[in-house]
Design goal:
Layout (H helix, E strand, L loop, with lengths): L6 H5 L6 H13 L10 H47 L3 H25 L4 H5 L1
Length: 125
C-alpha cells in the first residue's frame, strides 16, 4: 500500500503550482496599480479542492492501515489464547495424574514381590 503522496499532484508544478499562484497574488497586492486580486480566487479554489482531495485519499489509506493493524492485533490475541490452551498444562491435574501413576506402579511392584517370593531352594539351585 502506498504511504506517500506525489507533491507535484498535490501542489502543482512550475507555473501551475500553488506557490507560483501565491507569489502572483503577493505581487499583485504589493503593486501600486489597482489590480483586482479576486481574479485569482477561482485558481486558488481549484488548487484547494485538489489538496483536499489528496488529503482525503491519504486519510482513507490511513484508515485502512489502522483497520488492518486492529485486525492483526485481534488475531494475535486469539492465536495466543488458542496456543495457551493447547500448550499450557493444568498443574494440579498433572500432579494428580503423576501421583496416580506412582501409586499404580508401587501396587504393581508389591503384587509382583508377593507373587514371586523366592525361597532358599531358588537361591541354592
Amino acid at each position: 500500500m502506498r504511504v506517500d503522496a506525489d507533491g507535484g499532484a498535490i501542489f502543482g508544478t512550475a507555473d501551475q503550482s500553488v506557490f507560483a499562484l501565491l507569489d502572483t497574488i503577493v505581487t499583485d497586492l504589493r503593486s501600486t496599480t489597482n489590480v483586482n486580486v479576486a481574479t485569482h480566487l477561482d485558481a486558488l479554489d481549484k488548487r484547494m479542492a485538489i489538496m483536499t482531495g489528496q488529503r482525503s485519499e491519504i486519510g482513507a489509506r490511513q484508515v485502512q492501515l489502522e483497520r488492518a493493524q486492529s485486525t492483526l492485533l485481534e488475531k494475535s490475541a486469539t492465536l495466543d489464547a488458542q496456543r495457551s490452551g493447547i500448550e499450557d498444562a493444568d498443574l494440579g491435574q498433572v500432579i494428580l495424574d503423576l501421583k496416580l501413576q506412582e501409586v499404580t506402579y508401587q501396587a504393581a511392584l508389591a503384587v509382583t514381590a508377593r507373587v514371586l517370593q523366592p525361597t532358599l531352594m531358588d537361591f541354592l539351585s
